[in-house]
Amino acid sequence: MGTRPRTNGHYGGTSLKGLRRNNRGFVYRAIWDLKRVSRAELASVTGLHPATITHIVDELLADNMIVEVGSADPTIGRPRLQLQVHAEVAYVVGVSMTREAVSAALIDLGGAVSEVIQIDGLDLAEKQEYTVNRLRQAIEMLLEGAASTGRNVIGIGIGFPGPVDPATGQTYLTEAKGIREPLSFYLGARLAEYFKHPLYIDNDSNALALAEQYFGECHNVHDFVCINCGIGIGAGIVCNGDVYYGPYGNAGEIGHNVVDIDGVECVCGNRGCLTCYASIPAIIEQVATVLPHYPEPPTLNYIATLYREGHERVIEVVDRISRYLGLSIINIVNTLAPEVVVLSSHLEQLAPIIAQNIQVQMRHNLASPMHEHTQIVSSRLKYASLQGSAMLVIRQIYTSGSFHIHSDAALSSTK
């Protein structure tokens, strides 16, 4: 594990070799973003000379990173071959961790998800060894399956349910009374004992933001925030196209923002934290109190159904939850002025309901033009956590146009 050097963003000098490498990454990104594109169109959108485009495309074809496909319009004039990323030339193991479960899958370079493994009944806080061993087993199963079918796995990406220090790779869980208790070992270093693949670990909210940036609601959006509601609440913050981490990797820990100074006591020792009202366990608990005859804790989708059917008590609870979450989002909008705020798919069918409520709340509580320029939306991605974790690896290829990526979990925040 190394440390990430701090760089001065005002300077960008590079050698001729570096310039060629940058151009290659630039062309690969354009093909990846546009899905299908001709050489002439590449020259137009990148501004590179057609001869440069030809040289780089020939290199990418030779390296099997892109493929030629049929003409976009074969009926007019001479057919023009289109270029697209060779998504199945390589795969990534994407892993999403919560405190209670692990899910993992094989994901190709285009984000397609397959071979999903789900392991429940875990306890990361109290049974770290057991949880990490089960995580390792899930990765091993996917690697063995990929090898048996000839699929080339080039890296492992993991979304972790807590801060990840970008300088050291240290993983943390936020515990009671506000104390940050690290795991008894560096998770990345421990997994590196078993796997030779490049390994990237990042906070799960940052991984969700990457999923939305590359596959979801925020494609081509430069400034947005992804709200991750689970057992706790976090935010993945993207500014000018890059995830913002803060110096210690703990930016976006909004779950303990106080939304009611006289509210219920939180496990952190404060009162009225957002997590007490808008985390998934808190949502279910609050709705359960108005459904005394319902034998089981209501699911999020059942809550959404009752809301749409006009259940007055459920509407009252969900609207109150929306106001609390909306208060934090309004503060985020006032501070960062994002173009979009995305509610994660973990809220299931309740997400679009809460998003619409908050959009209305913003119109009443934000001055123009803030409320006019910020959209509150819900994620459409079924596998956002897995795709975002995979993007921790894939974005290394996306930016370089090369399979030669380094293995260092401490560099999980490298762009």
UniProtKB/TrEMBL annotation:
Family matches, as Gene3D superfamilies: 3.30.420.40, Winged helix-like DNA-binding domain superfamily/Winged helix DNA-binding domain (1.10.10.10)
Listed InterPro entries: ATPase_NBD, ROK, WH-like_DNA-bd_sf, WH_DNA-bd_sf
Pfam families: ROK (PF00480)
Superkingdom classification of source: Bacteria
Similarity section: Belongs to the ROK (NagC/XylR) family.
Name the record gives this protein: Transcriptional regulator
